[in-house]
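hey can u check if this looks right to u? its 672 residues, i copy pasted from the old doc so theres a chance i mangled smth
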Amino acid sequence: MLLKDYKYYFLPLAILKCSIFCNAQITPANIVYLQNFGQGTSDPNIVGPPISKGFTDFTYSNLVCPPAGSYSLVWATPPPDQSCFGGKWMFLTHDHDHEMNPLLDFGMMMLVNDTSSSSNRIVYVDTVNKNFCYDVTYKFSFSVINIDVITQCTYGPDFPVFEFRIEDDSGQLIKKDTTRPGVAASTAKKFSTYGFDFTIPNGVTTLVPKLTLLQGTYWCEEDFAVDDIMITTNGPKVNIAFDNEPGTVVKSVCFQQNETVSITGNMDAFYQNPALQWQQSIDSGITWTDIPGATTANYSRQFSTPDSFLFRLSGAEVVNIGNPNCRVVSKNLRVEVDGIPTNISATNNSPVCTGDDLIFNASGGASYIWTGPNGFSDNIQFSHIYSPALKDSGRYYVEITTLGGCITRDSTYVTMTGTDVYASPDTSICKGDSVQLKTSAGVTYSWVPVYGISNPSINDPMVKPDATTVYSATVTDSHGCSDTANVLIKVLNSTAVKAGISGSDFLCRPYDSASFKNISAGNITKWSWNFDNGQKDSTSTPSIQYYSIPDNEDGYVVRLAIADSSGCADTAYHTLKVVNNCYIAVPSAFTPNGDGLNDYLCPLNAYEATNLIFRVYNRYGQLIFETRDWTKKWDGTMKGIKQASDVYVWILEYIDVKGKKVFQKGTSVLIR
């Protein structure tokens, strides 16, 4: 919408409601007379001044909602929450001019609160003195809308009925018509236009256009608004277009280029001796002047002065071409001759934090080309750098071009604050491994996702992801600026690789054997055994190993290194302790007195025994001690109570190194 501060323009005769868009028309017409009730301001509560006395039978009101039997001049009716008469009237946001051309704002209309009357009432009448032609067809028309909200009328509805007529100055009727059966209320909120063609009798130089509300009982759905009461010429259609640009209605050029613009037109067949005349307006279509010598179908002109020009082609019988009131006209074409743009600007929203949206704004032209630090360039009005860094500080330039091609330049300086955040390292790990991340120094830190991370609020947390993960670090500095960086931790395998060995724990001098079992986990493809006896193996199930043990050797270390197809590896170690004696025996006596000598009863040297069970019974057959771990010894007590000196029976069961089940039974003496 146009937001300029308009004034009212009221004249008793032909009244034009003009902004810079006054020329734009949906249907080209040569307006001989127009009453459109003037132009308002942006405030819809300001009512226009009264129509001159004698032009209407209705009483003027300075209220937006005029009382019964009166009218006011407005460009809108109040919205629903402030509507007239308890919501009886519809909410209108514009007059008929705006309906025909949305670029025309704040045009007034005559708003009438109708009421019953026993006589006809003149809505509007005027006297038009023009140099008319008698062999030209004219058209008299007006636009009207029923402003009542559709309701269930107790009586009625009583739609308003109008008579519209053209008389001469002596009151003689030239032509008339009515709007019967009336102007009905409608939810479409659209004006209806009524009119008729007429010719002027010889000798008539003055016309009286009259719009009358016929008498009747008006109680329901009877209120209305009137706009655009006009007389226009009516005849053949006149067509014009810019050469090679048939759809263009506004052509822009730059004054520096001295460009020649050509327009071509034609008029449909109608007149016996047709004539053409090009016209120009430099006041936005308020007045039109004939262009001397421009009487052919083509008009060309070179433009070297910044301004706005309107052109149209008029036509008539050759005998009438000298009278503008007898012509038909084409639509208007506009030529905008641009000067060097002066009302320009280039701005940005800095200072902004790194990582925030840096926004540029240029105005005053039709196209823009931006350039700046670090190779920046763009060709839109509102340019962006969506994740700027500190290095993006500096001066940015914009080349501003008008529609006509006139060029100027402007610039704006950008200040970036904050920190350039980084995160590292991008790396690959095996499942189950950990890696330490690191990001830029700041005041606060936030890592996401938090799963598998040791502390998401520090700058160097440890992470142990189960799968490939992108970690994002958001760092905030002392200025409150935040930025985010990402680091990729790629997990190479889906199942963790974990090496494991089970097997013999002891070797007995001077010669012994040992077996080992691979208990590793993962999708393993490689095994590497080292048995510390000079033997190696690359299978998952190695053979029994043999050891010749020198006197000075007290142990061996077995190593298993494994790897999967992704290269993830692990190593396990298993220690073999060398012992001097592996003969299993149970002492015949023990003295649990705490002197460190023979204080316990247990099987001795059961290093290689498996599935061992050792039980001790008293002379009454009561089980007083039992263990499956030969290193767990009986201390001569039962439930913390010292047992008496006596002979005790023991039973020992185990499986020896050759897999043979052994059963032994004997007695030992407890001496206190």
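The radius of gyration is 53 Å.
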